[in-house]
Specification:
- The model is unreliable at 303-309 (pLDDT under 50).
- The protein contains 13 helices and six strands.
- It is flat, with a radius of gyration of 24 Å.
- The chain is mostly helical.
- It has two domains: 5-27 and 85-211, no CATH class; 226-306, no CATH class.
- The chain has a three-stranded antiparallel β-sheet with strand order 1-2-3, with no helix packed on it. The chain has a three-stranded antiparallel β-sheet with strand order 4-5-6.
Length: 309
Amino acid sequence: MRTGLTFYRRLSQIAFIAVFALIPVFDLFRYDTATHEFFLFGRVWTLGLKEGFAADPSAAGALSVTAQFILNAVLPWIAFLAVFPLMGWLTGRLFCGWACPEGALFELADFLTLKLTGRRNLFVRRQQEPDRGTPNRVAYGLLALLSAVVIPLAGGVALTGYLIAPKTIWHQLAAGQLSFGVKAGIIGVAIYMIVTSVLVRHVLCRFVCAAGLMQMLFGWASGRSLRLQMDVARISECTDCKACDKACFMNVTPRRHRRDISCVNCGACVDACNRELGNGRGLFHLGFGTGCALPEENCRKLAPNTIQR
């Protein structure tokens, strides 16, 4: 049986969450509130200014300070801020669908809500909801309760490590004596994760998240970014099963065949259509502006004049 994009997307999400949690552990990127030091790739990041730099009133001294500040503070910050617009220009909102830990959390919340209530959203029932099957509500209820406790606390520990040394946090947890800063960090993050995963979910992705908005705008403006495409030459093969509509957790309607800035290139509709029409015969694919990228079977079948640019 052919493995769909969703399987690889789950692996990608799990891998990124693991990396995200380990970044402060290895001092790859974090700020220590105790020592007031910023760590980058295992080293303390400084402006590179020599001791007593303020005592040099000359123009050469001022120029040296300015150059060091631009080189070690302004340019790195600009480079960091440029990451998400660049990803958006090249891959659209691929990061949102394949890597974002918060997006993965919202998908889990959608899944559990669907199993327990028959719909993804606690407050609104969509016209096209996925089939939830015949789940064991007790088992999924316990899983939801366990997730609501374990995941926010684990997220609180991981994110607090970006501001307090992870070793300090783990020592305090082992001793059962948490400082105010550690308590505030873990509890604050946990509350945020619970509130957003229960009440907000993908509304945050669409209208609030700055990283998502940058990818959204630059991906929409780019003529070459990765995006969902449809083989319009074979539209007559559509069975009107609406599986693609049901699969989309961002409320995108794939069959409209237009670029939607809310699409996160997750490939759920690709897998859904392949299940309906047969592996490799689905109408959807993820392609760049100048051609087709995934899945390979669809790329081979597409006529050149059906590839959207």
